[in-house]
């Protein structure tokens, strides 16, 4: 499907929303000059437009499949992966010592978002591999790093993440996969994992699985879990793929969407593995990968939103129906409302994702605790708002198409079907929202309060030039602050959890308004000012209803007994 990489939007947001110049001013990222950023975005944009976007539809029509135990990917995906690998995109933010480009996550986030817009199911393969690279960089031994990282960064080998088991979904601590020491520094890993994205492929020389399993002396729950690197083919003495390990793909799921990405049931039968991190320290190591993936999955949502928006706009500009000045449906007020909402929401979600990545970069570059807590606070908000924007915008995209939206040939429905899972994997959105109001507020709401101070200060300054936009942003932020204080004061955690998702949505609405206000100030009277005005006037006010829901407490949601639910 045609796709146009929105490079100028990224450049604009880098400059005016997330202060990318601060990142480029650090020693760690001193090479990320304006020229480099522009060249990277342009090259990645070309890859997305010319190589990846044409694979979106074939992947949907011809899903990945298992043939006599061999995983076959959709036509063209092998060439797509090769182009991604050869461009160095897998190792974009990887450590240069192992062949990575060492570029900021902010830039990688923009590139990953473009790839997601072009072809979500293929993009999941490099995303999984990037997550594994980061986990190995932080937790693996020097030997494992030296052997695996260069091959993964070059895209010669791919990576997966194996947490889920039939009885252990959100509750990862319930897993039963086992690992036993072989006495030579390696381990035998046994168990079944389900829903493993890109559990195998026919284009990388080797597939490296990061597997969570329990050692014999591991206590029940998450504290007794260890992490193992289990390759499909065991590296020989020269580090080349050698004999097959004792693992296989049992089956590939039939899914609602994301057909080009094989979602596998994996069986490990005493497969040889190497410990990553400390014994029983698996969750800490896996969290590195999961946090990376959460940022990536939020970006997948924004990418899908952009793709769906472009698709719907192209249709609206052509479809003739009713009397309008242009003769096409684009001039009907309700269609305008849909297109404006799609575009304004996508900008808000994109800015939040980039701000999240920028906080990670600043934390990595400076080691500053405030940046770390900012990154931690923004991660669940970005994951949830990014993916829900993907769902909302792609659903609206179907509506813009009218009946044709319901017909597969138009391609509008694919965006919705493909993006739907992003709200489920990498920690369901409900659980992310609980993380925001619980773990991320263990500081008594300090990190949240610091962010709200910044938003209010900015709105206060903007009052002088754009009072009609700055006023509502300030007021919404003040209401959010009151609800944040209410949240922190709840000692019964169910009171927080019952309203966690609406609270997160309200937070995202306010953050989105903050970035729209920044955009408007940078482009007074221009298209981004008009978009900001729409967002602040029409979408931001949702916060008020959301905050009422957020503070409703647990009594009502537990009002019906289980018996009353079914009666
Ligand atoms: C296409 C696809 C690809 C995937 N890829 C991978 C992968 O590569 N690797 C991997 O390991 N896993 C993968 N998964 C698994 C995915 O991460 C899980 O599906 C997800 O974590 C939810 O687990 P579950 O499906 O068991 O749902 P459940 O945990 O059974 O959840 C069901 C519902 O209950 C809610 N719920 C559960 N527990 C709580 C709680 N404590 N508090 C509040 N609400 C709760 C959930 O939010 C959800 O709404 C994938 C799944 C899919 C569908």
UniProtKB/TrEMBL annotation:
Reaction catalyzed: 3-(methylsulfanyl)propanoyl-CoA + oxidized [electron-transfer flavoprotein] + H(+) = 3-(methylsulfanyl)acryloyl-CoA + reduced [electron-transfer flavoprotein]
Domain Acyl-CoA oxidase/dehydrogenase middle: 161-270
Keyword Ion transport in annotation: no
Family recorded in the similarity comment: Belongs to the acyl-CoA dehydrogenase family.
Classification via Pfam families: Acyl-CoA_dh_1 (PF00441), Acyl-CoA_dh_C (PF12806), Acyl-CoA_dh_M (PF02770), Acyl-CoA_dh_N (PF02771)
Name of the encoding gene: mmgC_4
The Acyl-CoA dehydrogenase/oxidase N-terminal domain, residue ranges: 78-156
Record's function text: Involved in the assimilation of dimethylsulphoniopropionate (DMSP), an important compound in the fixation of carbon in marine phytoplankton, by mediating the conversion of 3-(methylthio)propanoyl-CoA (MMPA-CoA) to 3-(methylthio)acryloyl-CoA (MTA-CoA).
Cofactor: FAD
Domain (Acetyl-CoA dehydrogenase-like C-terminal) ranges: 451-559
InterPro entries linked: Acyl-CoA_dh-like_C_dom (IPR025878), Acyl-CoA_Oxase/DH_mid-dom (IPR006091), Acyl-CoA_Oxase/DH_mid-dom_sf (IPR046373), AcylCo_DH-like_C (IPR036250), AcylCo_DH/oxidase_C (IPR009075), AcylCoA_DH/ox_N (IPR013786), AcylCoA_DH/ox_N_sf (IPR037069), AcylCoA_DH/oxidase_NM_dom_sf (IPR009100)
Keywords: FAD, Flavoprotein, Oxidoreductase
Domain spans labelled Acyl-CoA dehydrogenase/oxidase C-terminal: 281-439
Protein name in the entry: 3-methylmercaptopropionyl-CoA dehydrogenase
GO MF annotation, one: flavin adenine dinucleotide binding
EC number: 1.3.99.41
């Amino acid at each position: 499907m045609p796709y146009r990489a929105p490079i100028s939007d990224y450049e604009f947001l880098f400059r005016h929303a997330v202060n990318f110049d601060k990142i480029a001013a650090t020693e760690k990222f001193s090479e990320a000059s304006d020229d480099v950023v522009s060249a990277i975005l342009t090259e990645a944009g070309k890859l997305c437009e010319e190589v990846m976007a044409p694979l979106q539809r074939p992947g949907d029509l011809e899903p990945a499949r298992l043939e006599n135990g061999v995983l076959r990917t959709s036509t063209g995906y092998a060439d797509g992966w090769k182009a991604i690998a050869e461009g160095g995109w897998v190792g974009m933010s990887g450590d240069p010592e192992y062949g990575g480009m060492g570029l900021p996550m902010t830039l990688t986030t923009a590139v990953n978002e473009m790839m997601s817009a072009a072809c979500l199911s293929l993009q999941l393969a490099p995303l999984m591999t990037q997550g594994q690279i980061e986990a190995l960089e932080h937790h693996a031994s020097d030997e494992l790093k030296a052997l695996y990282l260069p091959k993964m960064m070059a895209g010669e080998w791919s990576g997966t993440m194996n947490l889920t088991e039939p009885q252990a979904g959100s509750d990862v601590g319930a897993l039963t996969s086992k690992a036993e020491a072989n006495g030579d520094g390696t381990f035998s890993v046994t168990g079944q994992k389900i829903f493993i994205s890109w559990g195998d492929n026919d284009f990388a020389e080797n597939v490296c699985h990061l597997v969570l399993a329990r050692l014999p002396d591991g206590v029940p729950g998450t504290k007794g879990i260890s992490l193992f690197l289990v390759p499909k083919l065991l590296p020989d003495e020269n580090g080349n793929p050698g004999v097959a390990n004792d693992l296989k793909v049992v089956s590939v799921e039939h899914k609602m969407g994301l057909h080009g990405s094989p979602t596998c049931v994996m069986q490990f039968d005493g497969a040889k593995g190497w410990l990553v991190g400390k014994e029983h320290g698996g969750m800490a190591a896996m969290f590195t990968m999961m946090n990376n993936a959460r940022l990536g999955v939020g970006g997948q949502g924004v990418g899908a939103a952009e793709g769906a928006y472009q698709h719907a706009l192209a249709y609206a500009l052509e479809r003739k129906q009713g009397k309008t000045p242009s003769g096409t449906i684009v001039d009907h007020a309700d269609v305008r409302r849909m297109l404006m909402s799609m575009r304004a929401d996508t900008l808000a979600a994109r800015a939040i994702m980039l701000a999240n990545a920028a906080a990670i970069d600043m934390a990595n570059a400076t080691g500053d605790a405030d940046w770390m807590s900012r990154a931690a606070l923004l991660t669940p908000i970005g994951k949830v708002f990014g993916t829900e924007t993907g769902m909302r915008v792609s659903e609206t995209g179907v509506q813009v198409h009218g009946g044709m939206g319901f017909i597969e040939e138009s391609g509008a429905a694919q965006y919705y079907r493909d993006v739907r899972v992003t709200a489920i994997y990498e920690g369901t959105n409900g659980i992310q929202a609980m993380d925001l109001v619980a773990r991320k507020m263990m500081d008594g709401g300090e990190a949240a309060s610091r962010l709200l101070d910044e938003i209010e200060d900015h709105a206060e300054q903007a009052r002088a030039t754009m009072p009609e936009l700055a006023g509502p942003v300030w007021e919404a932020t003040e209401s959010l602050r009151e609800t944040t204080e209410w949240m922190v004061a709840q000692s019964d955690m169910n009171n927080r959890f019952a309203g966690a998702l609406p609270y997160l949505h309200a937070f995202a609405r306010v953050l989105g308004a903050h970035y729209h206000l920044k955009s408007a100030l940078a482009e007074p009277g221009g298209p981004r000012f008009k978009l900001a005005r729409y967002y602040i006037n029409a979408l931001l006010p949702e916060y008020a209803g959301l905050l009422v829901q957020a503070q409703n407490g647990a009594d009502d949601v537990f009002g019906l007994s289980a018996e009353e639910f079914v009666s």
